Amino acid sequence: MDNTRGDKTPGNDELERSKVHIIVEILEYVPHSVVIKTIIKKTTGNVSIMSFDNGEGLVEKSTPFDTFVQIVEGRAVIVIEKQPNNLSTGQGIIIPAHASHYITPNERFKMILTTIKSGYE
Q1: pLDDT class for 6, splitting at 50, 70, 90?
Q2: d(CA 121, CA 117)
Q3: Which of 1, 76, 77, 83 is the most buried if burial means most Cβ atoms within 10 Å?
């Protein structure tokens, strides 16, 4: 299977190592959907890429870890503790651990999500 388009190979949900990837091309947009592809997953944290069709977002939640969001294509509003942050291609923001947050698109967009699970001891 072509692992660069979001397809899953049994037992391997990550991208192929030691290979150059064009990040914005890893996922396609799917109508009325949010699509997620794991770039790398470790016990200490995860890196994923997500594509959002216009009108699709993430509901309000909080996580026990710091999370870095970087927009790699398009624009979105990242609301953290009721404070809206307008981000566009190339911009990023850190969502603090335990902070209430949600994501609302301004258009179709893609983002990289990096969750750091270590350093909280």
Answers
A1: very low
A2: 10
A3: 76
- How much is the average pLDDT of 57-84? 95
Tell me the pLDDT tens digit for each residue of 20-29.
888 888 889 9
Contact 105/74 with Cβ under 8 angstroms? yes
In terms of C-beta density within 10 A (0-12 exposed, 13-18 middle, 19 or more buried), how is residue 57 classed? Answer: middle
β-pairing, 109-116 with 66-73? antiparallel
Q: Where are the domains of the chain?
A: 3-116
Task: Give the architecture-level CATH label for domain 3-116.
Answer: Sandwich (2.60)
